[in-house]
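Hi X.,

You mentioned you wanted examples for the new student's onboarding notes, showing what a folding record looks like when two proteins sit in one file. Here is a clean example. The first protein comes first, with its sequence line followed by its structure tokens.
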Amino acid sequence: MKIERNDATADLSAQIATAIRDAIVSGQLPVDERLPSEAELAEEFQVSRSTVREALKRLAAQSLIRTQRGAFGGAFINRIAFEDAYGQHVTTSTLLLSMNAVSFDVACEARFAMERACAPFAVKRRTADHLATMRAEIQKQSQPGLSDESWCASDVAFHRAFVDSAGNPVISYQLAGSVEAMQPLMNMITFTARNREKIILLHTEIANYLDLGNPGAVEKILIKLSDYTKTLAYDVIAAKDKEKRA
């Protein structure tokens, strides 16, 4: 493992963390293998132990390594589960949407297109637990007096269960960004105008057709939900523009 030392302003701890991360990704450092000690890494990279310690903190923050105490302790290469990476993925997706001013149309198109792609897999692989989770969220959404915040959280949980029912961890990971980052954005724009009963009906139809094993019908309902969501957004945006001009 090597780092560039030509730039005096370079952050050496970041370079070391990158070098170790690259070695993990390439397989040079296998999962569960113990990293060299801080002293050994300091000698290898020709830096202080405090610089190595900072690099290891960066790697631990990314869940790439774990530390163990005791005689056989040290830093070990971590095996990252897809679920462990959801949070960082959602955060990155949320930042990308907000910083790049992604339009509602673009976000909505991407999110529902990817979600519709789950339908054939979900029909084949959904379990009783997936359906039970979806129906539980529908029941929660039907509760009178449910706050907007709780309703939005239930909406996300419903679609999360649908995505997970596809039984493909790679798809679930990729869609975590669109469902859990884009859905709150959509809810935030449309919550004042939406008809909860209509959305609950669409959610119920998705769960029912999923249970019946009809992927085409599931896709059609998702298209209806997408169209309704976009219509709500257009109405809300138009109303706000009218207020500004008044």
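Then the second protein repeats the pattern, sequence line and then tokens:
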Amino acid sequence: MTQAGLPVLSDVAQALCAALILAVPLVAAGLALMNAGLGRSRSAAHAMLGSVCVLAVAVMVYFVCGFSWQGLPGGPSHEFTVAGRPWNWLAAEPFFFRGLPLDGSRAALTAWLQMFGVGIAALIPLGAGNDRWRLGASCASTALLAGWTYPLFAHWVWGGGWLAQLGANCGLGYGFVDAGGAGTIHAVGGLTALSVAWILGPRAGKYAAAGMPMAMPGHNAVLVLLACFLTWLGWIGLNGSGSLLFAGAASGSIALVAVNTTLSAAMGALAAAGITRVRFGRPDASLCANGWTGGLVASSAACVFVQPAAAAVTGAIAGALVTLSVEWLDARMGVDDPAGSISVHAVAGLWGLLALGLFARIPPDAALRPAAGNSNQWLAQLAGIAVLLLFILPMTYALNRVLNRFYPQRVAAEGESQGLDLYELGAGAYPEFVTHREDRNPR
């Protein structure tokens, strides 16, 4: 069935959107550097090559079938009827982008942005699997994410699916809204990271016999902090283009998006610095970087619908949640997440979705689905969060658990001890600069 889509973009909006999309790959570069820097030096090249490979797999699988399942508002789709109301659950576009007008249209720009979006989502689990996830297994897991999990939820939110219809069908605000991908990109990726971390188990030596976690700091804080600047620039492009394409924002609102994105990131980093300063006596560089990125993630959902003060509050709470969540997962839940991917993307992403329901005031002329206005918007956001936790998380865990039975995802103990660079790639990332203690010649 075909339904009404969003209005056509003006020439100015098309050019602006294209320029913003060009900045989005900086998010991928930043996340790749963060994953590498927060892992061990003997697996750094593996982490970077893994980022390149999962990006390539994600893009190709999305091109083959992912976009077909996600679709566009107004495109062909599968629906079912309940109480006389149609509920859209899956798109029915042709495979391989067939029939997609590759011009400056909204459809072409959406497909282009989503090729980057699915790649970013695929990078997130790599951080949770640092130092122990096989390269081939991470690519196979990415194929499941890009070919089914991501496009399914993205259709429900951005393709005119049933979550977006909650406003028209149930009177819950404008339906589930996620302008920049806090849930669709980051929470989906973060919950996949949680599934992968559960399946892989902790790194060797991470937990003592009594269950106490051992500190395994990242090997390069400079890379991690450099990543903060790259993600900042890329996120403005991600939030700005998402606001134009998925929230029907006007071109003039991009300045608000950029301000809100920056404020949220800044407050996330400051909150993390303050908490670690109080708890440990000094700020922690990796947690401050995680707080910064968590603020960016939380800003994505409502970046175009809140005032700067609300964006700053959203970022501060995200930074606090990320900092506390990293410790809670590590010490209380026994989840070994070297890069903090679960806290940064899943926890902060879910908070960003809720923050939209609490703080956003969507203008009546926003080009969203016909809806009841801002009334009960928070209930629509809660519905989306529930779907992520109660459906997407179990589904992605089950898919990766089945994959693990046929293609074991964790590297052999020998490979983990030796380092994934040498074990899987045959060469280290720093052959001239880093020598492990056990390799040194005695004097």
